[in-house]
Design goal:
two-stranded antiparallel ribbon; Alpha-Beta Plaits; 4 strands; alpha+beta
Length: 70
């Protein structure tokens, strides 16, 4: 299963900025709030999370990097 953006409805003000930057069509505006729709094309580019002025969109997983000692 492809990870999708997570939208916290209480933070979303429905501005639509995320929809404008979403190249795969994973986000739609419904009754003034952003909703995530199932799509195979979402590669989680982070653009929707970056442009969200209220922090309503978050990454559903944590990226962990580890220093490699040689």
């Amino acid at each position: 299963m492809v990870e999708m953006p997570v939208v916290e409805p209480g933070k979303c003000d429905g501005c639509g900025l995320c929809i404008n930057v979403c190249s795969c069509g994973a986000l739609v505006l419904v009754d003034g709030f952003i909703m995530v729709v199932a799509t195979e094309g979402c590669g989680w580019c982070l653009q929707c999370e970056i442009v969200c002025p209220t922090g309503a969109i978050t990454c559903p997983f944590e990226i962990v990097s580890e220093e490699i000692k040689m």
